[in-house]
């Protein structure tokens, strides 16, 4: 007699609680640790919230210019100096072709680790940042880690496409690409997925896209027009 065990597919839960102030975090949503990666595009309006949620903050090369130049306009600080002293990334990673010299010098003096990868032109700055996070995070901690990436959408299309490709290259990690208009996350076919929507800050529209191959067995619930296999 042949016995066959059918493994129930694990459920991966997704929430956008990081868009809410810490004081308004729902108690029944998944508890995550956050890492923040800042790319060289205009910062989203909710950037101070993302910064406050994160345990690790990495600027990808010219992303440091954005923190240096734009954070003051998103805070209630009285002067730019206090803002710059308060918002200091732990790491600046990349090929260093975009960060301004005075910005690099300032953050270095404030204790930021400067990781110059100018010798490596085979990967994008985002790939370098995610690779660092991937290597430093033990496998048993990866399910509870979410990497928030700002500046990944908009601008040059080849950059945007490369950023989306990073979701696939690191499909064992939760990575969310963020802009003022939308967020993008990969839903691996290895799991069932539950998405908790924070209706005060996201929606009402969403898009579900198969990329690179057709999706032949997708079923959804909770949408206005659901899929049935």
From TrEMBL:
GO terms for biological process: thiamine diphosphate biosynthetic process; thiamine metabolic process. Pathway: Cofactor biosynthesis; thiamine diphosphate biosynthesis; thiamine diphosphate from thiamine: step 1/1. The keyword Ribonucleoprotein does not apply. It comes from the Eukaryota. Residues 192-228 form the Thiamin pyrophosphokinase thiamin-binding domain. GO terms for molecular function: ATP binding; kinase activity; thiamine binding; thiamine diphosphokinase activity. Keywords: ATP-binding, Cytoplasm, Kinase, Nucleotide-binding, Transferase. Pfam families: TPK_B1_binding, TPK_catalytic. Gene3D superfamilies: Thiamin pyrophosphokinase, catalytic domain (3.40.50.10240), Thiamin pyrophosphokinase, thiamin-binding domain (2.60.120.320). It catalyses: thiamine + ATP = thiamine diphosphate + AMP + H(+). Residues 48-176 form the Thiamin pyrophosphokinase catalytic domain. Its EC number is 2.7.6.2. It is found in: Cytoplasm, Cytosol. GO terms for cellular component: cytosol. Belongs to the thiamine pyrophosphokinase family. PANTHER family: THIAMIN PYROPHOSPHOKINASE (PTHR13622), THIAMINE PYROPHOSPHOKINASE 2 (PTHR13622:SF6). Catalyzes the phosphorylation of thiamine to thiamine pyrophosphate (TPP). TPP is an active cofactor for enzymes involved in glycolysis and energy production. Plant leaves require high levels of TPP for photosynthesis and carbohydrate metabolism. This is Thiamine pyrophosphokinase.
């Amino acid at each position: 007699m042949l016995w066959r065990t059918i493994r129930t597919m694990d459920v991966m839960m997704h929430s956008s609680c990081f868009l809410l102030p810490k004081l308004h975090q729902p108690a029944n949503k998944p508890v995550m640790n956050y890492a923040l990666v800042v790319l060289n595009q205009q910062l989203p309006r909710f950037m101070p919230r993302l910064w406050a949620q994160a345990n690790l903050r990495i600027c990808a090369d010219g992303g440091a210019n954005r923190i240096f130049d734009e954070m003051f306009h998103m805070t209630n600080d009285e002067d730019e100096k206090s803002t710059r002293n308060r918002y200091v990334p732990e790491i600046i990673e990349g090929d260093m072709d975009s960060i301004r010299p005075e910005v690099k010098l300032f953050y270095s003096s404030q204790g930021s680790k400067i990781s110059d990868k100018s010798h490596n032109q085979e990967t994008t700055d985002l790939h370098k940042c995610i690779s660092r996070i991937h290597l430093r995070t033990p496998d048993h901690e990866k399910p509870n880690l979410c990497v928030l990436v700002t500046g990944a959408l908009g601008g040059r299309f080849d950059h945007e496409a490369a950023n989306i490709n990073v979701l696939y290259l690191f499909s064992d990690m939760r990575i969310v690409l963020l802009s003022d208009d939308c967020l993008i996350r990969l839903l691996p076919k290895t799991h069932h997925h539950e998405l908790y929507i924070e209706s005060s800050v996201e929606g009402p529209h969403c898009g579900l896209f198969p990329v690179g191959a057709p999706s032949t067995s997708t079923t959804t619930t909770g949408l206005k027009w659901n899929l049935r296999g």
